[in-house]
Write a structure and sequence with these properties.
alpha/beta
């Protein structure tokens, strides 16, 4: 399904933020790794979180769910002996479960998205699992991947942080369950440290003890630990809300987004600070963000590493800012569902944006007068690209057609419903 985004000068209304995908997938996993029954309140429903639901059940967890909560009885240290797991297009779910699959005799992760997740590399995690005594068959670091585990051994483990922090998170979920103590050393520059903080926060809530050096480059992990069955409450999602807030910023708006915790550890919370730096009129109090946009924005410079999943929305807002904006330290955007620098900027240019790329930077020469639009653009099966490109359509002279926009369901199935509720002129087409 494609979507047509028509020029929309005004957005008005009140929505509740989606529940956090990152926290939901982590809570589902720690609940499955506990022996006993855990309850997760307000879990996210998206293709990614549903992939984790499906896989933990395949591994032996039971899950009962209603509109408000998910009740999970875990398998503890003893996942079921399954032959295949299908994570869909969910990279974080794949990597976390590659770690847990080390407890199984032999599991193959199948490749159902050859043009997206199937292209993403996992060599650094494969190498780290090898240090635990786990054999891995793979296709040049890519799916399909077969893990031959059973009895992984703790000890000294080195893992690169250059491409993704998800490799480190995978080891942090696994190593507390091993019979031996472990020391994990991160090699190179660790990307997305804020997200590692979310993993550690969830592990602590699940009763796991990990001693992290302040710079997150060395971790001491005692072995022989047990995950505890607990109750968890999922907070609102900043990465998805970033696109809604950016859409409000580039239009004449009066938009309220609720359930966005002021004290959240999500790095993408920075979208609020970035929009303030761009001189967008907004307030953030009592977990409510209220944007009264006037369509006027100022250019900024921003280190995007701490807020990876909000950068594309920030760039879309900067397209309409006065002056030249620069987003740097973002090379890991190249290793997502698509190359979120080259592929995204190619589509922005089609719509009339004036953008440049470097290996780890995006430079945006703002066009406060708006862009021409009137084109069909390709979202490369990437939910974040779809959301960010929709922002452009609101301020284009002519409508923009985004191909395969249904892939927004990977993280935010209700995204276009929420935009419509705020008055955006969008329509689905075959």
């Amino acid at each position: 399904m494609d979507i047509i985004v028509n020029p929309t000068p005004q957005l008005r209304g009140n929505i509740g933020a989606l529940s956090s995908k990152n926290y939901t997938t982590r809570y589902l996993l720690v609940a499955a790794l506990a022996e006993g029954t855990s309850t997760i309140y307000f879990p996210a429903h998206s293709e990614d979180s549903d992939a984790m639901r499906r896989c933990i059940q395949d591994l032996g967890a039971t899950l009962i769910e209603d509109d408000e909560k998910a009740v999970i009885t875990g398998f503890g240290k003893h996942p079921k002996d399954v032959k295949e797991l299908n994570v869909g297009n969910a990279g974080a779910v794949l990597r976390f479960l590659m770690g847990i699959a080390a407890l199984c005799p032999e599991v193959t992760f199948v490749n159902t998205y050859p043009d997206s997740l199937g292209k993403r590399p996992h060599d650094d995690l494969i190498e780290a699992l090898g240090q635990l005594g786990v054999e891995v068959d793979h296709n040049d670091g890519r799916l399909p991947i077969t893990i031959r585990g059973g009895k992984p051994q703790g000890g000294k483990i080195k893992v690169s942080g250059e491409v993704s922090s998800q490799y480190l998170s995978a080891l942090l979920f696994l190593t507390p369950l091993l019979d031996q103590d472990s020391e994990i050393e991160v090699l190179g520059d660790l990307k997305s440290k804020v997200v590692v903080g979310q993993t550690l926060e969830v592990l602590e809530q699940a009763g796991i003890v990990i001693h992290a050096r302040e710079d997150y480059m060395v971790f001491q992990v005692p072995g022989r630990q047990n995950y505890q069955a607990k109750e968890y409450k999922v907070q609102g999602d900043y990465p998805g809300s970033a696109a809604i807030l950016a859409a409000a910023a580039v239009t004449q708006s009066d938009v309220i987004v609720e359930r966005l915790s002021v004290s959240s550890k999500q790095g993408e919370r920075a979208i609020v600070d970035v929009l303030k730096m761009m001189e967008v009129p907004l307030t953030h109090e009592n977990d409510i963000v209220h944007v009264k946009g006037n369509g006027r924005l100022k250019a900024i410079e921003f280190d995007g590493d701490a807020a990876t999943d909000a950068v594309l929305a920030m760039v879309a807002a900067a397209v309409f800012a006065e002056g030249t904006s620069r987003f740097y330290n973002i090379e890991n955007l190249r290793y997502k569902e698509c190359d979120r620098i080259t592929d995204y900027l190619t589509e922005l240019r089609k719509a009339g944006a004036n953008v440049e790329e470097r290996q780890s930077e995006i430079i945006v020469h703002g066009r406060p007068e708006g862009v021409e639009g009137g084109v069909e653009i390709n979202a490369h099966y990437d939910h974040r690209v779809i959301m960010a490109l929709s922002i452009l359509g609101l301020r284009s002279v002519q409508p923009i057609r985004i191909k395969d926009a249904h892939h927004v369901a990977k993280s935010y199935p209700q995204y276009f419903d929420h935009l419509q509720a705020l008055g955006a002129q969008v329509e689905w087409v075959q």
